[in-house]
Amino acid sequence: MQQAREDTDEHGVAWALEELRLAEARLDRRRQGRAPTSRERAATRWIFERDDAGDPATPSDLAEHLGISQSTASELIAKLVHDGIVATRQHPRDGRSKVLSPMNRNDHIEGDDALTDEIRTAVAGLTQEQAIAVRDFLEHLRELVDRAEPR
């Protein structure tokens, strides 16, 4: 990490986060062709959140949330289903409609993705207090990212 930091960033957190963003961008460029798009990541996150809240998303809900057409949403859902990220099933109250549900989030196979394995190892080294602080901070950042408007 570079030593130059702004005076307002006493502990270097903002600088470290910017370095993380740049590293993620580099990783995304290296994974070109294999990595999910930002739209796929946003859809996946939203489908998981809706499922966690006990309110499964429908394809129409997804299209509205992402601001895309029904046909684009259908193509996106087909890709997510093909990739094993989400599944579709009949709506419990409306047989004409489908609901989207996440596949098992714990399906990661050790050794399948070295970065995931390394992150899990790093997390295992945190104290409970540290882990809670990091989790809360990252959740807050995710909320900021979700609300951010592209320039």
* Domain tally: 2
Helicity range: 55-70%
Total number of helices: 6
Silhouette: elongated
Mean pLDDT over the full residue set: 79
What string gives the helices and strands in order? HHHHEEHH
Q: Give me the side-by-side strand order of the main sheet.
A: 1-2
Question: Class of the largest domain, according to the CATH hierarchy?
Answer: Mainly Alpha
Tell me the Rg in angstroms. Answer: 18 Å
What's the name of the CATH homologous superfamily of the largest domain?
Answer: Winged helix-like DNA-binding domain superfamily/Winged helix DNA-binding domain
The CATH topology annotation of the largest domain reads as Arc Repressor Mutant, subunit A
Could you describe the 3D structure shown?
This protein has 151 residues and is mainly α. The chain has six helices and two strands, in the order H-H-H-H-E-E-H-H. It has two domains: 38-102, Winged helix-like DNA-binding domain superfamily/Winged helix DNA-binding domain (Arc Repressor Mutant, subunit A); 108-151. Helix content is 56%, strand content 7%.
Give descriptors for this structure.
151 residues; mainly alpha; two-stranded antiparallel sheet; 7% strand; disordered N terminus
How do you describe this structure in short?
By secondary structure, the protein is mainly alpha-helical. The protein has helices at 13-30, 38-52, 59-66, 70-82, 114-124, 128-147, and strands at 86-90, 98-102.
Topology (SSEs and partners):
Blueprint: H1 13-30, H2 38-52, H3 59-66, H4 70-82, E1 86-90, E2 98-102, H5 114-124, H6 128-147
Antiparallel strand pairs: 1-2
Helix pairs in contact: 3-4
